[in-house]
Amino acid sequence: xxxxxxxxxxxxxxxxxxxxxxxxxxxxxxxxxxxxxxxxxxxxxxxxxxxxxxxxxxxxxxxxxxxxxxxxxxxxxxxxxxxxxxxxxxxxxxxxxxxxxxxxxxxxxxxxxxxxxxxxxxxxxxxxxxxxxxxxxxxxxxxxxxxxxxxxxxxxxxxxxxxxxxxxxxxxxxxxxxxxxxxxxxxxxxxxxxxxxxxxxxx
Amino acid sequence: xxxxxxxxxxxxxxxxxxxxxxxxxxxxxxxxxxxxxxxxxxxxxxxxxxxxxxxxxxxxxxxxxxxxxxxxxxxxxxxxxxxxxxxxxxxxxxxxxxxxxxxxxxxxxxxxxxxxxxxxxxxxxxxxxxxxxxxxxxxxxxxxxxxxxxxxxxxxxxxxxxxxxxxxxxxxxxxxxxxxxxxxxxxxxxxxxxxxxxxxxxx
Amino acid sequence: xxxxxxxxxxxxxxxxxxxxxxxxxxxxxxxxxxxxxxxxxxxxxxxxxxxxxxxxxxxxxxxxxxxxxxxxxxxxxxxxxxxxxxxxxxxxxxxxxxxxxxxxxxxxxxxxxxxxxxxxxxxxxxxxxxxxxxxxxxxxxxxxxxxxxxxxxxxxxxxxxxxxxxxxxxxxxxxxxxxxxxxxxxxxxxxxxxxxxxxxxxx
Amino acid sequence: xxxxxxxxxxxxxxxxxxxxxxxxxxxxxxxxxxxxxxxxxxxxxxxxxxxxxxxxxxxxxxxxxxxxxxxxxxxxxxxxxxxxxxxxxxxxxxxxxxxxxxxxxxxxxxxxxxxxxxxxxxxxxxxxxxxxxxxxxxxxxxxxxxxxxxxxxxxxxxxxxxxxxxxxxxxxxxxxxxxxxxxxxxxxxxxxxxxxxxxxxxx
Lengths: 203, 203, 203, 203
Fold this sequence. Notes:
By secondary structure, the first copy, chain A, is of the alpha/beta class. Chain A has 7 helices and 6 strands; from the N terminus they run H-H-H-E-E-E-H-E-H-E-H-E-H. Chain A is globular. Chains A and B meet through helix 4 and helix 7 of A and helix 4 and helix 7 of B.
């Protein structure tokens, strides 16, 4: 296999990239200046050494000085009463940008698909229990399950809820994000479940 | 202008229909059997006589026997404490289908666009005040403003809220539908306002 | 069934219209001024009487004074050597607008789907043979088969080609529209058949 | 800037990739096994050394043994009478796959936008003249201009046509790909230029 084809093969494994775009990526690299290409290769080679999972929340962060905790978990000024469990790393930036949440996070690492319940073994359920117990000693009062509003997300919430009830910490409340009309919703196109929640949560 | 072109012109005025689809509609009519065509023409000619606005909620309903009220306003068993104000007729069926609301409705007849506040004169603001005062005597406790979650919808809610405060009925609560994650929402793509409401309304 | 629902039912039969848009059409009619509504109903009731199929080409035209031929078939100055067979009425306007064709037309009335060859009985094959023989006496030299470039269109071309060979007129050439790159085509996305034809027809 | 952000920045420069997908790429790399990551980094670092432009046609090819010509230019059995000028590398695979062309290629390296004619200096116009003169001695009879069918493509064809007329080789024909209906075209939606060419090229 040529170097060209080998690179195409690598890029085809990138999320959302098909053969044609993979080829375009290689053409792009061929026209880059050599210095920039070298920098990209080095960055890729180094990324796993320089970016690591936080020992508490499991999101990726840049380990610059032997830190084992990310800047959020390291920040003692955040609200110790709240822990939000999300599906994946990329769920965190929009919440931080909203500026309304100041508790801690935990990245579960995926969902438990409704039709493949055995997938739960790939998730960080055990670690979550440990972290919840640890944070309980620091004042944790509520775990917020922040999953997608679809069957897999709801199944994951059930799974995590059950899991957390197995801990010794009986006083921790388990909540889920509120449902209702989201920005841009039009009543005419809303589904019954959303209408039901929008009515129930009216203010 | 030929009969063909005249029909095309009529259909071009239908909501969402361009010249090409308008022509298709005419070709469709040309291949219909004459009896069905006659029935369509009659139904169109009669629709304004047979379908009329309800004297209370202003939605359209089939007037079969001199009724001035639609079947919802005519139903004394519904919840007299609730009145939901919607933008247009077509907002009502999804709410009825959700099976969770059993109060009455009021069709405002449009929105007050943020940039064209003078549009409020086209709406049924005066009639709404009258209906609210009438229903207050029958036990009305809450008016639910059920508009789209966008700038025009929110502006309309402000307008209607102010309007209702002008009535004598000070004990009527004015509420809006709850906001949060709607069915199908993914956290990663949620906007700050939706995240904020989802957090606030967590349960 | 109410008048409203009856109209919805009619509009749902319009090409490309689903239940929701059908309802919108009825709401639109309810807000039209009564005179315009009356005019629409009359136009629909009259359209089949006022618009009729041309006795030669079978396209629809406005019969204002007992004419049996449309304005194209009636125009003796067009090119008697050419007859173009199209699938449906709506194929003719773009060709006329191109300003490059001055022969006559014949509307076949559909295609012969590759998987349902028996559908050919719904088409105007017999009439086409008659018209071709009639026009042969007036100098017809070529029949152009102008169907869509897809399996059904190509199957229809085969069917019509065979049909025309059954006539007595052996000197009439049967042609199909040229293939190649159409406006907006990019080489990178072209299919092999198009590339093949583009190369063969290079100029 | 962290290693993570630096990689995001690199990927954002990839064609068609926005910030969100760039971040996904980095998450993908973080979960790859280290060996595969190393291989990707090496392939990127090496690609410019291992893949080079063909000295004749300028497309990229894998230089495994000091070759200066790609496998097509190196193949003496191809048709020496034909040279096809394309805009970019990625135009060649679909033509090769069509299996109908056996001449040589020349990658111009871009287009001359109608509104920025000075862009022609970025193209390989001079090299094309040299190659045409060289191939003329080997029997070149026709240069096929194979550009996109849009204003920029047509402008580029004019530019290259003028350029080639400046060479000494007066006997070389200059052609462009044939136009007409491409696969999937429907007459009703065809533009006048395509209809005109489809009629002119009818067969």
